[in-house]
Amino acid sequence: MSRHETSPATLQPASNHRPNACCFCWCCCCSCSWNEDREQAWRASRETKLETIPNCEACAKPTPEEVQGWAQSFDKLMKSPAGRNVFREFLRTEYSEENMLFWLACEELKTECNKHTIDEKARMIYEDYISILSPKEVSLDSRVREVINRKMQEPSSHTFDDAQLQIYTLMHRDSYPRFLNSAIYKSLLQTVSHSSSES
């Protein structure tokens, strides 16, 4: 039974804060106390995991040419560690930093060769960014979710390729144009250009 296919017999009273809830599904529409406990435990584990995420990637200070290049193409921005950091800072202001975190996690997964490590990292990515219980769930269509759910039975380093491409495209089409017009990017461009002209 999917989260949208609850039978009338299993509906909870209208006063419940989660409509169309049933106690036979695993998803967050369930309003039973068992699921509430699971969600609280999950949020606590999320906070612990988040502490291990670095604030930004280690990178050198970008040159004026590099910063100007970010406006030429999204690919140039995403291939630059400094560019990803600045873009991630912008995404944080739009409350969509999870898109970059998910993309980075997928890139890291692709470098793994050890089967046990791949399984572990794939499950963490699933819990952190795909699970509907996660506060950092990324926006994916149902087709991609179905593909991931099938692949998670035997995870590989490419389990999230379709999802990663979808999020990359979303950032490119949706966030990137706003980033180029943002105070964050314009300020950085001005700063590096000014320091370059002084030296």
Automatic annotation (TrEMBL):
Subcellular location: Cytoplasm; Membrane; Nucleus
Keywords recorded for this protein, A-Z: Cytoplasm, Glycoprotein, Lipoprotein, Membrane, Nucleus, Palmitate, Signal transduction inhibitor, Ubl conjugation
Pfam family, one: RGS
GO cellular component, one term: membrane
Domain RGS, first and last residues per copy: 73-189
GO biological process entries: G protein-coupled receptor signaling pathway; negative regulation of signal transduction
Domain of life, per lineage: Eukaryota
Xref: InterPro entries: RGS (IPR016137), RGS_sf (IPR036305), RGS_subdom1/3 (IPR024066), RGS_subdomain_2 (IPR044926)
Topology relative to the membrane: Lipid-anchor
Subunit-structure text: Forms a complex with G(alpha)z/i2 subunits and mu-opioid receptors; the formation of this complex results in mu-opioid receptor desensitization. Interacts with OPRM1.
Biological role: Inhibits signal transduction by increasing the GTPase activity of G protein alpha subunits thereby driving them into their inactive GDP-bound form. Binds selectively to G(z)-alpha and G(alpha)-i2 subunits, accelerates their GTPase activity and regulates their signaling activities. The G(z)-alpha activity is inhibited by the phosphorylation and palmitoylation of the G-protein. Negatively regulates mu-opioid receptor-mediated activation of the G-proteins.
Protein name: Regulator of G-protein signaling 20
Lineage of source species: Eukaryota, Metazoa, Chordata, Craniata, Vertebrata
Gene from which this protein is expressed: Rgs19
